């Protein structure tokens, strides 16, 4: 699928380099001439947006590390030192802290787009699996990053989440001690989380490269789900999609920066502005918003081990989704029944997010179970409906669909 | 062409709605169960263009110094911060005079005899805490710890009274949960209704986040602190001023933040506009 590069080195240096490392012609083929379906809508811009967010997080993170101290007695105040004394430290820290949430918003949109337009289907299974892997790495990175400021929610969130592993029989407790580096969340835990929080983003970057490589082998999907058939169906990536993506990135950054400049604490829990205290447990321990749907699933199951398995299962199911969905039709646009269930699934995710922040009692738990059933039910449904549904007629080609 | 544009607009709107929906799922502050009702107040520093009122911060500092600081430390704030722009903006001479007059001392050392010693505070020193450690603070306060005030305005918040209120807060750029809470708490002392009496040493206050009985007695009364600028010397005014001051202590860069924010967003809006026009021009002849 990779576009045949029309690049011809012009000057002597470029010619010299071309014979030794044809990196310019490779980039030209992959990022300039790359044939991209002409009918991509704005949901396709979230990949570029996520990429910009990842770069923002890495750059601001590197600067933060220059001023942060990973020690239980100093971490909280070193973050405040960044906020108060470091030149523009407040800006860097607010960008990083809010950036995490906005990165997740972009990635959730990217995933939903993939689910709706069947981006996980043959021949893009590996592309999809790499994406789920990025998502998992992001969750680990975000979780460990939230621990670093060493506020009350940092400490108690870390305690609750690491304790989940104790649900596993026999190996559970040793694994938890191993994760902690001791018998409770303490300085060794903070230090290893810091080391891993610095490492994982670069692993994410590596998997992103594979993700894009896989994308450039199979080519983009598109809203019709009909594969590219001729050159007529495509446009070169540059300038058509570089400019369009940049426009979307600019709009997204306006949205992002409104939080950074006007509501920097919007996504944060007030308790995290209190230094960690192992002797005082907060009234409600709540994870960051982007974990709430999974947290709701965890608490919906009455058994601890069952809850942990259900929570991990909610992510694991994404890995096998390409083989669960039995329909050959990629786009939900042509699957009237499946489409309804897709939106039900979205509603369930949002509802679980809401319930994850509510106390685990009474009706909240009942609703959590109902929406959890819809969440998992969606995947069962995809398996069954694919065998029996009658899709709407597909266009013959992308060009035909845009001309009609 | 028209329908195409329409469908593109629709797609874009759908994308935006979903993004907002994702935020809706967001927000830890919606952790329900809070029954305290907090009356929202007007603050000079709220909204996109709000900035601190220098005179108010100076009054608030006076209230903190003369009343609150008897029990509550402010360990992350330095004397030099009182001089910096975007804060109370006392002059350097004023702060030096204040240190001398109030007799602020900072523990230093060891000296060449190996002994720690106290010396008059300097501009670069943190505000001294009233107690050497939390244990001493508890011992002096009937077992209750008077929290440090450096971050208090960001460490307390009461969620709105209806589900999803955080969405409205987000759309209105509301970020003053902290000072609203502090104001409500200070002015919230009253006689306990029948059946809700507090144990000895506790005081009834239905604005208190963790129950209706608080260890701190009503901290201030009318005319307790003398204002030199003619402002009203009422509990209400004291509460307002000290809440604003505490918000500054927690968010000392707010003025600068909003100013840079406005310019940045202005720049980005123009950039996005130009990129939009470029996109339109580029795609104008192309069916997609």
Written description of the protein model:
The complex is a heterodimer of chains A (404) and B (288). Chain A has a domain of 265 residues: Cytochrome Bc1 Complex, Chain C. Chain A has 404 residues and is mainly α. The two termini of chain A are 26 Å apart. A two-stranded antiparallel sheet of chain A has the order 1-2. Chain B contains 9 helices and 4 strands; from the N terminus they run H-H-H-E-E-H-H-H-H-E-E-H-H. About 4% of the residues of chain B have low confidence. In chain B, the strands form 2 sheets. Chain B has a two-stranded antiparallel sheet. Helices cover 42% and strands 4% of the residues of chain B.
List the helices and strands and how they pair.
The complex is a heterodimer of chains A (404) and B (288).
Chain A: H1 12-20, H2 23-32, E1 35-37, H3 46-65, H4 75-84, H5 89-116, H6 125-147, H7 152-163, H8 172-180, H9 187-218, E2 234-236, H10 237-262, H11 292-300, H12 304-324, H13 336-357, H14 362-388, H15 398-403
Antiparallel strand pairs in A: 1-2
Chain B: H1 2-24, H2 54-66, H3 92-102, E1 105-108, E2 117-120, H4 134-140, H5 152-155, H6 165-171, H7 177-186, E3 203-204, E4 213-214, H8 235-250, H9 254-283
Antiparallel strand pairs in B: 1-2, 3-4
Helix pairs in contact in B: 2-8, 7-8
Question: What's this entry about, in short?
Answer:
Chain A is built from 15 helices and 2 strands. Chain A has helices spanning 12-20, 23-32, 46-65, 75-84, 89-116, 125-147, 152-163, 172-180, 187-218, 237-262, 292-300, 304-324, 336-357, 362-388, 398-403; strands at residues 35-37, 234-236.
